[in-house]
Write a structure and sequence with these properties.
199 residues; alpha+beta; Aspartate Aminotransferase, domain 1; 5-stranded antiparallel beta sheet; 8 helices; 5 strands; elongated
Length: 199
């Protein structure tokens, strides 16, 4: 592999990772990915590897592990059973996690097979079938508020799907109805203003 496939814009990530505990692991993952002839870019502050302008895989470092994140991992076959869905809210991405450089070295052939499959998915133009918001249940407390203030329902439906999902998740996370109802009260005005949960 030639150094020409390394992107100078990404160098700073690897340079600063020298202070991180995953420096060796990051370098090994980088070499493994570049062997697959992907284009190295810097997106979201991390190395992102693309094929035909589509995002294929990212390198991530966390406290307990470092990971390869396959952007459309949900579409991969995963014969080894190693792909991890970070949380149930993550619909498309899947991780392969590592805690040391030896694991990466031992799995190099498997990792390349997964990367090549991800490239095939991109080549075929396959897309993850995201759950529409209708697939998420509107909490009863929010529905009650919609019935009480029809303008709230209209305002909610005018929000982007991502903002709607964020509200539904946030409200549904509360275990008690009382808490859900108070959250609905708290955010009613924001919804009416056309604002998302974090706006």
């Amino acid at each position: 592999m030639t150094n020409s496939s390394m992107n100078p814009k990404v160098e700073f990530f690897f340079f600063f990772s020298k202070a991180e505990k995953w420096q060796e692991e990051f370098e090994k993952l980088r070499m493994t990915i570049l062997d697959c002839q992907l284009t190295e870019e810097l997106k979201w502050g991390v190395p992102c590897y693309t094929f035909q302008k589509g995002n294929i895989v990212l390198i991530h470092g966390f406290k307990e592990y470092c990971a390869l994140l396959f952007v459309k991992g949900a579409l991969l076959q995963d014969p080894q059973g190693i792909l991890i869905q970070q949380t149930e809210k993550v619909q498309a991405g899947r991780q392969i996690r590592f805690t040391n450089v030896l694991e990466i070295a031992e799995m190099e052939t498997i990792l390349k097979a997964y990367i090549h499959e991800a490239m095939d998915v991109e080549k075929a133009g396959l897309k993850v079938d995201f759950k529409k918001n209708e697939a998420f249940t509107i909490p009863e407390e929010l529905q009650n508020k919609f019935d009480e203030i029809p303008a709230l329902k209209t305002a909610f439906e005018a929000l982007t799907p991502g903002r709607q999902r964020a509200y539904i998740h946030y409200l549904s996370e509360a275990k008690q109805s009382k808490t859900r109802a108070s959250r609905v009260e708290k955010y009613t005005q924001k919804i009416l203003n056309g604002e998302g949960l974090n706006d």
